[in-house]
Amino acid sequence: MRLPSLNRSAILLAVALLAGLLAAWTARRYLQDRARQLEADARVPMVERVVAADNLPLGTKLAAEHFAVRRLPAAAASSDSLPPARFHELEGGVLLAALKAGDPILPVHTARTRRAPFSGQIGAGRRAMTIPVDVINSVSGLLEPGDLIDLYVSFEHQRRRITAPLLQGVLVLATGHATRASGASPAERAGSFATVTLDTSPEDAIKLVAARQGGTITALLRHPDDGRPDPRAVRGDLATLLGVAEPKPGRDKRRVQVIYGNRANRGVAALAAMAAQAGSRDGSRGVFELPYTPELASAWMRAAGLQEPDHAAPAQH
Prior knowledge:
Radius of gyration: 43 Å
Largest sheet: 8 strands, antiparallel
């Protein structure tokens, strides 16, 4: 028996309506579940971590352009991953493994480039020696690595005070912890420091050690283009140096003085007077010249054609 056409249409309409209602309920249920999931995700703590901005091959030296920031769930972030504020700890490192874009960059992935040791600034056959300095010997803190200084030593000899040049043209390698290789600006290198490190030969280092133990050392700043050594020294007390010392009572002229072959000139009154007059004429009371011409301690650099201390590498000597 065939159903009436009206009843058949009503049944199809009812089925379509039920299907629509079911689809609407399913869509609503899906949207509600998705909203709850998003709310749950929003409650998960998130952190920002440094990741690779691009695919980075092995051996890449990391710079600022290689870093990016990515938000990760705190529970999923590696314990040694770095926040953006600490990206400088990775900057300058060299990658030990290739990374893909978005991969966290960890300290274990990098190796720091090692700074050349300070001993690399010392020439072959040379020695670095550190001595304490005060405000005077540091030229009021204006002494810088690369300067040249003269060292004078004052000591007692045969009951007379002598001040003589010990080393001249000594290269200053460091003032305190500051060196030219440290990258500090001149303003940062200058300032307060209690020691200076000098470039010396082994023989000069021995002289400097002995002078520190038996005398007083004073440093004078030398012009970098001054290549003339000074052999002059002084002896005697301050009154003698200033020419105000009273002369010793002369001998009785009526008495004939016997001259012996083993007596120095100063033991003969007439010869001593002549020497005193000569000293007065040339204005060099107490000033005398060393029996040798001292060599500049930095002469080895000029002989090797090195003008800048930074170039004093052992392979070039």
